[in-house]
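Bug #77: duplicate submission created two jobs. Keeping one. Sequence:
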Amino acid sequence: MQDAAYVRDAFARIADRYVLTNHVLSCGADIWWRKVVTARIRRWKPARLLDVASGTGDLALEIQDQCPDCEVIASDFCAEMLAHAASRGVARTMVADALQLPFPDGKFDVVTVAFGLRNMADYPAALREMGRVIKPGGHLLILDFSLPGGILRPFYRFYLHHVLPRMAGWLTGQRDAYEYLGGSIEAFPSGTAMMELLENCGFVETSATPLTGGVVSIYQASRPAS
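Kept job's structure:
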């Protein structure tokens, strides 16, 4: 779990180059990951969706495009990141802390969080707060990094701890903002550990789907219908 002040400052400093850096570091795979997420959301046909820790709005923009009948609100506690989201076309943005969302209970059909939960100061508190604003029977969808298994694991860990910070530093001029990334991914619960955390926070129908050999995973859960 992360120091909130450090995370906010780090993202504010890299906001201008954040989108390009993500595309380069993932070799463009982040675009496909968001399309996979949005395809699931489209099947639910939500009327109202909250994208928590939306950053520069990549996922919110994809959902807006693919779900035109859905009201999408992008929230983040870093105003500099949200300014980019708004300039790129996200219709509704709101500066808000994920641990204290300024919405009434049960307001949204779906809540999403892409590469954001891992950066929060308290995972269980954030998950419970997201669950609070989801309608009974509504859905939570998390997209975040995980560690691949098998032969890919040692190569990925070398990239994560040694190559990625150097590349990110060159692209953004803020290498220190990425130094913590590897450790945060190592410590972040994944697979069955994430499903257990979701269930402990009151969610049901949990599932985990690894993508790209387990480099990232989609976690899906629902708020109980009653």
